[in-house]
Amino acid sequence: MTVPLAEVNVEALSIFAVIVAITLAITYWASQRTKDAATFWAAGRGITGAQNGFAIAGDYMSAASFLGIAGLIFLFGFDGFLYSVGFLVAFLVVLFLLAERMRNSGKFTMADVLSFRLNERPARTAAALGTLVVAGFYLIAQMVGAGALINALVGINFSLAVIATGAFMLIYVVFGGMLATTWVQIIKAILLMSATIVLSIFVLGKIGWNPIDLFNRAEAQSDDGHAYLEPGLRFDNPIDTISLGLGLVLGTAGLPHILMRFFTVPDAKAARTSVVWAVGLIGAFYVMTTFLGFGARAILGEAGATGGVDEAGNLAAPLLAQEVGGGDGTIGGDAFLAIIAAVAFATILAVVAGLVISASGAVAHDVWSNVIRKGRDSEHEEVYVARIAALSIGAIAIAIAVAGGSDLNVSYMVGLAFAVAASANFPALLLALTWKRFNTTGAVTGVLCGVISSVGLVLVGPDVRSDPLIELTQPGIISIPIGFLGCILGTLLSKEEAKAERQFEELHVRSETGIGAERPLEGAGLAPRPRRPRPEVPAGTGVAPTR
Amino acid sequence: MATPGTVRGPAHHEEIDWERAARSPEFQELEGSRRSFVLPATIFFFCWYFGFIILAGYAPSFMGESIYEGFTVGYLFALTQFVMVWVLAGLYLRRANRVFDPLVRRVVEKTPGAAGYATDGAGTSPTDGPSTPRTGDGRPGDREVTS
């Protein structure tokens, strides 16, 4: 069982080419419609709830989920599955606390909500910082992962793979904006779900259709024996386990590229529906990681680890597909490997496109338009700057990934992105929406405390230093309280802000009811929506429209 | 715009009396109704999830005990998390559609200047609302390129 490291996998490349051709056609269609800022960043707010549910799933389930979790379960058994659980439970926080409020209050970026009632420039700058740090770490991790995976699976050189991934990502975002990004994510979600379902069925067939047998076989195939089915193989420190759980559950609610998706739907009801769709899809996927991870252990055994599966276990799922498809060298085995490789490629493209468009929002809409130009720029300029920003961010990420090479240690970066999101973005957003006294100083100190503490803890931790100052790989349990404390102390120790408290009522009512919310563009979306006749009500009369 | 805080972000609506809307019995009822679901549901899922995580951290051998032919306590506990998420999301969706949305509609009806902002899932048509511009905030130069 060897990975086709040297030779180029023509089958996988052909499937890549088909996926790329379809997504480029969509990008062309989207580029024809992307003329204004609301289409560039929010797809004209014409994405339906179900479409957005698929897009959220496509935006969220990175290669780290698909290949990474399968690999973590393959290597560490039960501890790998902890990720699957945390990634899903996180969506309850999003559904209950943020999805509808974000849609009602915001316009294009997370910073819109944070700065709604606070002092525009400092609050926006802080939110943009939080966005860029999260998107930056996440993006670099994905790009390096993309290069390494495509290199191993398809046989293309690492740098070329990174540049190709980056180039497609930039074409989608620069020309097609959020509209193209959304459809790339929807297609990816469909591909990922289909491939995972088929692979799970093959795995079940291979072990005789008894799912419980999967655990027994996996245990028998592991050198760790019964410990493989117990927690503790990856995290021997219980505090790390709890810290990881906290970071995953609160981090998702602070991921800028996920929050941005709620601006693409017509209203709060569609935002809510989209989370429920996403929860169904993402939950089904993470349940199936059982078949991918434990299945890889049961079917490939230790031989998988010494033979082809790399250190992080990222190749467990593709090798599993090859094995259940018939094995190395068979038509079925090679075809299945090629399909999984192509799905992994689509997965990476959809996630990096979402990350780049959210980062471009932070640079162009937040920093350029509102902080530097103070709103004096035209909408045309805003979109122009957004495209330049996306190009620059993409180019920087490509450069770092190519310069760092496949040896760059990115294993901690996705975890760090979640920790920063949970410690910097989530506390500030939640308090801006719910705490009247909250002020600009609190927001700025909170975001800074969250960013500095989570990045700092990882920099002195065992993932980065060989002589760690602190024996904690997951910073959440310390950095999340620091983020909240920063917000609260910063607020209480500074002067009350009359404007922030006065405008709190506006944000409060708006976020809960949608009164004053940004409206969808006319004609946005795919098909014309049936429009209910509504009696004309003159504004300000307070007369109830009859339904 | 007069205040720098409203330049290119979401448009503020000075024409609506937000203080009054926030104090209105309709809004209070909406908030109370929402809180009566979200608060207990959030407390429940936090306890259930962190109960699972804490046991995974501190009681690995208990979590590894077999319930049925190798199917472990820990794995069963993990599967209940998935069921919990689906059930709570479904309950929230139903409660929101049946209870919160009609309450939102009542707040909208009782708030002068808010007509046309009711949540109906199909998107409010931009043409039938109040006199709010649909994008930007109507600043000169918002649409046309001046430079």
Structure description:
The complex is a heterodimer of chains A (547) and B (147). Chain A has 547 residues and is mainly alpha-helical. Chain A has 19 helices and no strands. Chain A has helices at residues 10-33, 37-42, 49-60, 63-76, 78-105, 110-114, 120-154, 158-206, 211-221, 238-251, 256-259, 268-307, 316-324, 331-372, 379-404, 413-434, 440-459, 476-492, 498-513. In chain A, α17 (440-459) runs antiparallel to α18. Chain A is globular. Chain B has 147 residues and is mainly α. Chain B has a domain at 18-112. Chain B has helices at 18-23, 25-58, 60-63, 73-110; strands at residues 66-68, 71-72. In chain B, 35% of the residues are buried. The model of chain B is unreliable at 1-6 and 121-147 (pLDDT under 50).
Give the N-to-C terminal Cα separation of chain B.
19 Å
Helix percent of chain B reads: 55-70%
Instruction: Output the radius of gyration of chain A.
Output: 23 Å
> Stretches of chain B where pLDDT falls below 50 for ≥5 residues?
1-6, 121-147
Secondary-structure-derived class of chain A? mainly alpha
Number of strands of chain A: 0
- Per DSSP E runs of 2 or more residues, the count of β-strands of chain B stands at 2
Q: Beta-strand percentage of chain A?
A: under 5%
Q: For this entry, what is the oligomeric state of its chains?
A: heterodimer
Radius of gyration of chain B: 24 Å
Overall body shape of chain B: elongated
Element pattern of chain A in H and E = HHHHHHHHHHHHHHHHHHH
Strands ordered across the widest β-sheet of chain B: 1-2
Helix percentage range of chain A: over 70%
Strand residues, percent of chain B: under 5%
Q: Major sheet of chain B: size, sense and barrel closure?
A: 2 strands, antiparallel
Structural class of chain B: mainly alpha
